[in-house]
């Protein structure tokens, strides 16, 4: 490595199973010369960085717990054959928690980025889409939500969004990995601000276990903000989990669950819709939104209600425009509005064909309107 | 290079300014050893392929006409700091036309891919979104379209979509680069099938020149399917071009124009909306759709009508479900339907803020509905 090669730009081998800096050590990064080349914007023919940061660029590799030495270049099993890459300005943090590898870097155009087990969870530029949609799709669909549970969501962004709803009296959050919360508080204050709301009750632990001990019918809404269903989140797409969710919701209570990409995971979506139709006796729908830094540029949501007062997800009874103070709460809304809410349920023709259970919902074309 | 290293997998230095295979020579590819490594799915630390195919992966580089030796690794000026990569199974074609570099490769999960000047134009998997949206947004918004002009669109996909409309009597297409048409006919028969419609009249040449000679008010609809506004397509986002378009449209005729990403190019969108508002005296709107292989996973459209019978783009007067035979025409519709049409006009809150001219259209949230 050349002396002084890295001035003003930090990059280092990451997630190689050896790195173990803590939050306060993040400035001691090693600077390989390849990063300099990237900075100089020259053609890069010999990339000697680690696979996840090729010449100063981050790319999503395969999920890699325990197999650091055999990691595949790109080719995540959840989205084989493609990768999205971001230019890395500086690696801010990396460590291994009890559950996953955690990486934070400053990108050149998407702001700070949070990565778990090699998979981008959020960027400062586009986190608004996921946080706002997964929260307001359910909470704007019921009148005066009072009790809400978040499963996962350790970055705090969903809490921030729930806090806009002034009818809410109690927000429980059950996150398994405390390190995610600590990292968010340090590097993503605009998200972690959600933890400052006095209505928030934090529970560190396993959500399956937590839900077993919840009184029946306790919640008006449950939001499952989990990572992809590999590793610790596997249980969260299985039937027993949805049954405990349904049990914890009041009659006519609502669930919104992260549900992957319609371009890549129609089989998984079909399975989730199928399980939810069996479990939730109210309505079950699929909605989607465009998130640039997620695979295929899209994220989906399964949204359900339990038997009870009917819930019309597509015509929200509690529109955000009528929630007092919602627009100004700590940070303005960036993506969500009531038009976007309704539009999110419009499904491409191939989705209706491939996910057979969605064919009859929402109903035919002439029944959508905007003006 | 190792002997016999490339059996069963072809990859080669591409777009280096020297390559000059023609369509029939595509099998004579050179196979560098790095591609083999990618195939074996091992961590790739020393990528020795050309910058656009790193270890058997294609990534979008900067637009590179005439500057092959100084190409930037990733970092396209239209979307700096990020890149989408696809695994390359086989390079099928590469050549330089009079106007641009043309590359076709077989990807591992998106089917065949067409690349112009290093920028992905379409993949077999997701071309449906762009072709269907740019065509049916305008054609379903007017009653009985008869005469249609396509600017660009040499792959034929837009022609295929226009052909679904049985009221259409004449389809003119003005494409500047004949090589794109030839390549599409060879490698993308599902798109190029559009050229087989007897209503199609092909004009090879410059669209600005073509439009100058068009009788005033000739067309019911004009679709501008151009590449990004750098290089040959630069003129197509400037005022004089839109004025010739408006002149060529009948009163109440419609234009649909490719209009980039709302995440990356709000300044460009603002400029286009501004020019169109000055030029088109009917309505001017912005719509978007999710395309996984385009930057930020999204593509936008500016859609306008000239002064005359009012056009309500959001409530199509000619819904696709009522166009006889539209669903079955040569290939089923994969993305577009009337729900998607209307939903495409729902704009995220940040877009309304950043593109000031879009604030008042469409009108507020409570006026969208789906059921």
From TrEMBL, chains A, B:
<dbReference type="Pfam" id="PF01564">
    <property type="entry name" value="Spermine_synth"/>
</dbReference>
<dbReference type="InterPro" id="IPR030668">
    <property type="entry name" value="Spermi_synthase_euk"/>
</dbReference>
<dbReference type="InterPro" id="IPR029063">
    <property type="entry name" value="SAM-dependent_MTases_sf"/>
</dbReference>
<dbReference type="Pfam" id="PF17284">
    <property type="entry name" value="Spermine_synt_N"/>
</dbReference>
<keyword id="KW-0620">Polyamine biosynthesis</keyword>
<comment type="similarity">
    <text>Belongs to the spermidine/spermine synthase family.</text>
</comment>
<keyword id="KW-0808">Transferase</keyword>
<dbReference type="InterPro" id="IPR030374">
    <property type="entry name" value="PABS"/>
</dbReference>
<comment type="pathway">
    <text>Amine and polyamine biosynthesis; spermidine biosynthesis; spermidine from putrescine: step 1/1.</text>
</comment>
<dbReference type="InterPro" id="IPR037163">
    <property type="entry name" value="Spermidine_synt_N_sf"/>
</dbReference>
<protein>
    <recommendedName>
        <fullName>spermidine synthase</fullName>
        <ecNumber>2.5.1.16</ecNumber>
    </recommendedName>
</protein>
<dbReference type="GO" id="GO:0005829">
    <property type="term" value="C:cytosol"/>
</dbReference>
<dbReference type="GO" id="GO:0008295">
    <property type="term" value="P:spermidine biosynthetic process"/>
</dbReference>
<keyword id="KW-0745">Spermidine biosynthesis</keyword>
<dbReference type="InterPro" id="IPR030373">
    <property type="entry name" value="PABS_CS"/>
</dbReference>
<dbReference type="InterPro" id="IPR001045">
    <property type="entry name" value="Spermi_synthase"/>
</dbReference>
<feature type="active site" description="Proton acceptor">
    <location>
        <position position="225"/>
    </location>
</feature>
<dbReference type="InterPro" id="IPR035246">
    <property type="entry name" value="Spermidine_synt_N"/>
</dbReference>
<dbReference type="GO" id="GO:0004766">
    <property type="term" value="F:spermidine synthase activity"/>
</dbReference>
<feature type="domain" description="PABS">
    <location>
        <begin position="55"/>
        <end position="306"/>
    </location>
</feature>
């Amino acid at each position: 490595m050349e002396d002084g090669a890295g001035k003003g730009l930090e990059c280092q081998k990451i997630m190689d199973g050896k790195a173990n800096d803590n939050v306060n050590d993040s400035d001691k990064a090693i600077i390989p010369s390849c990063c300099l080349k990237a900075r100089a914007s020259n053609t890069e023919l010999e990339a000697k960085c680690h696979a996840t940061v090729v010449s100063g660029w981050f790319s999503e590799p395969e999920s890699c717990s325990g197999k650091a030495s055999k990691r595949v270049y790109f080719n995540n099993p959840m989205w084989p054959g493609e990768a999205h890459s971001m230019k890395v300005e500086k690696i801010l943090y990396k460590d291994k928690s009890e559950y996953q590898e955690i990486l934070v870097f400053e990108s050149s155009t998407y702001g700070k980025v949070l990565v778990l087990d090699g998979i981008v969870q959020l960027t400062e530029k586009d986190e608004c889409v996921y946080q706002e949609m997964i929260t307001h799709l359910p909470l704007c669909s019921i009148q005066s939500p009072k009790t809400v549970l978040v499963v996962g969501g350790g970055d705090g962004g969903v809490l921030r969004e729930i806090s806009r709803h002034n009818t809410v009296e109690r927000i429980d959050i059950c996150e398994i990995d405390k390190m995610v919360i600590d990292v968010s508080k340090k590097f993503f204050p605009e998200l972690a601000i959600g933890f400052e709301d006095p209505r928030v009750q934090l529970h560190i632990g396993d959500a399956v276990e937590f839900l077993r001990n919840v009184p029946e019918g306790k919640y008006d809404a449950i939001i499952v903000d989990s990572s992809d269903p590999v590793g610790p989140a596997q249980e969260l797409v299985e039937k027993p989990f949805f049954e405990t969710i349904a049990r914890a919701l009041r009659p006519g209570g609502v669930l919104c669950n992260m549900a992957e990409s319609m371009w890549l995971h129609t089989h998984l979506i079909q399975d989730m819709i199928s399980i939810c139709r069996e479990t939730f006796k109210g309505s079950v729908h699929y909605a989607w939104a465009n998130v640039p830094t997620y695979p295929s540029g899209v994220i989906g949501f399964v949204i359900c209600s339990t038997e009870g007062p009917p819930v019309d997800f597509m015509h929200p009874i509690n529109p955000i425009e009528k929630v007092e103070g919602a627009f100004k709460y700590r940070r303005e809304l960036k993506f969500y509005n009531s038009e976007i809410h309704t539009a999110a349920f419009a499904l491409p023709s191939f989705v209706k064909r491939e996910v057979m259970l969605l064919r009859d919902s929402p109903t035919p074309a002439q029944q959508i309107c905007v003006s």
